[in-house]
Amino acid sequence: MAEYTLDTRVAVARAKMLKSAVPQATIFYAMKANGHPAIVSALATVCDGVDVASAGELEIALAHGFSRVVCSGPAKSLTFLRAAAAAGATVNVESIQELHALGSLGVAVTVCLRVNRRIALPAGISHRMSYQFGIDETRLPEAFAVAASYPLIDVAGFHLHAMSGNLDVNAHNVFIKESLEWAASFGLRQVNLGGGFGVDYTGPLQFDPFGLDVPTLPGVEVLFEPGRWLVADAGHYSAEVADIKQNHDNWYVVIRGGMHQFRTPVAYGQSFPFLVAPREEWPHPWPRPEVRDSRVTIAGELCTPNDILARDAQVSLVRAGDVIVFPKAGAYGWDISPHQYLRHPSPTFVILS
Asked: What is the pLDDT of residues 264-321, one digit of tens each?
């Protein structure tokens, strides 16, 4: 048994907090963090728009309340580009070829050029959006020329998403200031700064949106598109303890779940914190496995040594049949997990609203 609990109220509260912190900015939800329809519907009531990265995400966004959309991601298909144009979405263009592909459709479309700039980023980020993304800034003259050759392409501005997992708001302000100063020289009307607001999965640090310093530029709309920061705290992942054993002097708590349902710990190379929810019922005639006052590893049910969600964690008591609960599981959990590996059943979803 495994289960996700998603609290849409938490996601909405985070979006409202961000909007109150930077009222001069436009807030989009990066749907790749969690595309569950309940989350999408809830955030459509408070966010200004949504960022999608596939035709499938676009379909969900339009069906669940979003009207303003930006379309991102490398290797967009012609099907995706046609659907984006038909929906009146802004396309964050990733390459010169993508501009030609859009132009070949013969329909009006608004674009932002995604630029991969040669700038220093904060030292503490979890990911730099690496060099397969966007257009090298040295090729911008060519990009503008190609766009101008297609009269139905309207270049609104730039998409400058460059990082993920930044917890230092002061460092983020440096990025914001430098990015807006650079973009202002082009005289366009929109700058999308992406997301990148970090979540501390293993400690007490918080990214403080009220510390953001976002200059107001006349005639220029500034966008942010966070995903993780909005929804990480809106989800919990729970899985039943299937077995407990001691091998090579180490205790292993094996759950009926794992990275095929909750890949976040493996993807980010982190040992996730967890809670133990006790269950007193033990329906079997054999002795109940347990471990007391020890350090344990939480392992999943997959046939791979990579399926580890927590390491060397102190517990007072865990028994087979208890439930392990992982908080901060609302972002990049189920959505990035290899669901089909071994074909185990999917978790159930409980929605709080």
From this structure: 999 988 899 999 999 999 999 999 999 999 999 999 999 999 999 999 999 999 999 9
Is residue 271 a contact partner of residue 326, using CB atoms and an 8 Å limit?
A: no
| Predicted structure pTM score | 0.95
Q: How many domains does the chain divide into?
A: 2
Cα separation, 118 vs 182, in Å, equals 12
| Cα–Cα distance measured from residue 121 to residue 247, given in angstroms and rounded to the nearest whole number | 43
Residue 303 among the catalytic residues: yes
Dump pLDDT digits (tens) for 14-65: 999 999 999 999 999 999 999 999 999 999 999 999 999 999 999 999 999 9
Complete DSSP assignment for 226-262: -SHHHHGGGEEEEEEEEEEEEETTEEEEEES--TTT-
Strand segments, DSSP code E, in the chain are: 2-7, 26-30, 49-52, 69-71, 90-93, 109-116, 127-128, 135-136, 153-159, 163-164, 190-192, 221-224, 235-247, 250-255, 275-277, 290-299, 308-319, 323-326, 348-352
Distances (CA, A) of 201 to 207, 278, 283: 12, 23, 35
Closest alpha carbon to 334 in 229, 231, 204 = 231
Residues 141 and 282 in one domain: no
Q: Are 237 and 333 in contact (CB under 8 A)?
A: yes
Long-range contacts for 140-148 (Cβ within 8 Å, ≥24 apart)? Answer: 140/113, 140/115, 142/96, 143/93, 143/96, 143/99, 143/113, 144/113, 146/96, 146/99, 146/100, 146/103, 147/99, 147/103, 147/111, 147/113
Range of the domain at 46: 8-232
Domain final residue, candidates 217, 232, 247: 232
Q: Is 331 helix (H, G, I), strand (E, B) or coil?
A: coil
Question: How many Å apart are CA 313 and CA 311, to the nearest integer?
Answer: 6
Do the domain assignments include residue 171? yes
Q: Which CATH number fits the domain that encloses residue 345?
A: 2.40.37.10
Whether 13 and 96 share a structural domain:
yes
For the chain, report the end-to-end CA distance as a whole number of angstroms: 23
